[in-house]
Amino acid sequence: MRVVAPHYILAFVLATGLGACATRATDTATGQPVAKSSSAPFFGGRNQGRSTGEAGIGVNAFLWRATLDTLSFMPLADSDPFGGTYATEWHSIAEKPEERFKVQVYILDTRLRADGLAVQVFRQTRSGTGWIDATVDPDTAIQIENSILTRARQLRIAQLETR
Q1: Position 50 in a domain
Q2: Domain range spanning residue 107?
Q3: For 25-79, how does the pLDDT look when each residue is reduced to its tens digit (9 = 90+)?
Q4: Is the pTM higher than 0.90?
Q5: So what's the pLDDT on residue 163?
C-alpha cells in the first residue's frame, strides 16, 4: 500500500476550499450573473445582499409572512413553508353562523410577484342535515390575494427602510 504525501492532501484541501469562494454565480432562471457572498457563514460572512425575501424557506418569505398575518383570524389546519402551502380550518363568523369558509393559499415563487400566489376559497352553508358546499364569489379569492400582496409589500418596504 502506498502512502500519500501530506503535501498532496494539503494541496487538494486548499484547492477545494478556495474553489468554493467564487464570487460570481448565474441565475438559473435568467442565465444572468449575480453577485454572491465570497465568505462562508461559518467564517462570519453573511449574505446581506439578499432581497428576495428567502429566509431559509422554499418560498418568498414576504408572501409567507403576509399570508400568516392576513389569515391569522382563521384557525390553521396545515402549513408548509418549504412547499408554500397554507390551509385553514372551516371558520364562521358570529354574524353569520349558518355559513363557513375555508381558505387555501399556494405560494408558487421565491420572488415577490403577483403571479406567485394562488388562493382558493371554499364555502359551506348549514342545512337541516349538515353542511353543504355552496358557491363562492370569485372576487373573494382575488380580495384575499390582494390583501396578502399588499401586506407582503408593506413587509418588504419595512425591511428596506431598516437597512
Answers
A1: no
A2: 61-161
A3: 555 544 555 545 444 444 444 444 444 544 567 889 999 999 999 999 999 999 9
A4: no
A5: 80
pLDDT tens column, 136-147: 999 999 999 999
DSSP 8-state secondary structure symbol assigned to residue 20: T
3-state SS class at 21: coil
Residue listed under C-alpha cell 465570497: 38
> DSSP letters along 40-97, please?
-GGGT---TT--S--SSSSS-HHHHHHHHHHTTTSPEEEEETTTTEEEEPPB--TT-T
The alpha carbons of the chain give a radius of gyration, in whole angstroms, of 24
Q: Which amino acid is at 132?
A: I
| Judgement on whether residues 79 and 22 belong to the same structural domain of the protein | no
**CATH at 102:** 3.30.530
**Which of 7-24 are b and which e, b meaning 16 or more Cβ less than 10 Å from the residue's Cβ?**
eeeeeeeeeeeeeeeeee
| Structural domain count, the chain | 2
Does 38 share its domain with 69? no
Asked, for residue 124, whether it belongs to a domain, the answer is yes
Residue 77 shares a structural domain with residue 157: yes
Instruction: Describe the strand order of the beta sheet including 117-126 as a list of residue ranges.
Output: 76-80, 85-88, 99-107, 117-126, 131-134
Read off the C-alpha cell for 17: 476550499
Co-location of 71 and 125 in the same domain = yes
